[in-house]
Specification:
Radius of gyration of chain A: 17 Å
Strand order of the largest sheet of chain A: 1-3-2
Number of domains of chain A: 2
Structural class of chain A: alpha+beta
Distance between the termini of chain A: 30 Å
CATH superfamily of the largest domain in chain A: Winged helix-like DNA-binding domain superfamily/Winged helix DNA-binding domain
Helix content of chain A: 40-55%
Largest sheet of chain A: 3 strands, antiparallel
Number of strands of chain A: 6
CATH class of the largest domain in chain A: Mainly Alpha
Oligomer: homodimer
Shape of chain A: globular
Strand content of chain A: 15-25%
CATH architecture of the largest domain in chain A: Orthogonal Bundle
Chain lengths: 146, 146
Amino acid sequence: MTSGQEVHTAVGARLRQVEQRYTASRRRLVDVLAGAGRPLTIPEILSDDARLPQSSAYRNLAVLEQAGVVRRVQVHDEFARYELDEDLTEHHHHLVCVGCGRIADYTVPRPLERALEKAIARVTAATGFDAHSHRLDLVGLCASCR
Amino acid sequence: MTSGQEVHTAVGARLRQVEQRYTASRRRLVDVLAGAGRPLTIPEILSDDARLPQSSAYRNLAVLEQAGVVRRVQVHDEFARYELDEDLTEHHHHLVCVGCGRIADYTVPRPLERALEKAIARVTAATGFDAHSHRLDLVGLCASCR
DNA sequence: CTCAGTGCAAAGGATTTGCATGCCG
DNA sequence: CGGCATGCAAATCCTTTGCACTGAG
């Protein structure tokens, strides 16, 4: 896990690469997401920092996504969710609770992760599909919804 | 892979379990999805069979989903997609092309699938999250978009 | 006859955009 | 100063719903 300061430095660099500024509200969005440790919906983000107007949140999250700073996570939920890019945090997957709709991060054992990557390489060779990344979600019930 | 006739029989049974009829338009939806071999968006489904009005398609897909006949697949796409439930087809995963937005089905080698299940069992034990199913998507570029 | 299913048109709701204003560079 | 970022409000667009009609049992 990188410190908050490092994250901001890295985010600033990425934004500059796509000729975007690292403004105060964008910084706030990054702060909220960095502090969550799980993908957040827009309503969650807005309630976390009341100074963020809805439309600016949507607009800035789109900019941040384009800059490779945040990632949009789509689930069966009605709301889209956002999280920091894995380069800024760590490679992980999601536990999707069908009871309460919450999403938690988790990481799989290193050996399995390696097996996944090997298998993905085989898929590329066999199908001609060039995989940039993979998503492994577990769908079920979290401890409090069981 | 089950034949078209078997699929209809199984679908009819599931609908009866939730006290729903297997009507002509529901049958058409199942036919379209069975013939696709990949998750389809509503526009794709509608253009495949012009006799399906939009609102009925949405409504019947919701019924079929509730009956466990179809599954809603959410991707970065703007449209939701639907596919037949895995019990009616076969356990598989998705190749998501970021170029054209298309989604293809694929299956991973049996040994990896077993490794996944073992790892999932460990996650359940360690975190208290009770996983009913898993999703493994590969995100990248398909052969024609490379 | 009764009631679920259908289809049209209108409503809903998350997300996007137009436009006037403020602020960074 | 010039142009991007902002914030409000209005528009978009996928999806859902109200309502009158049809058809199966």
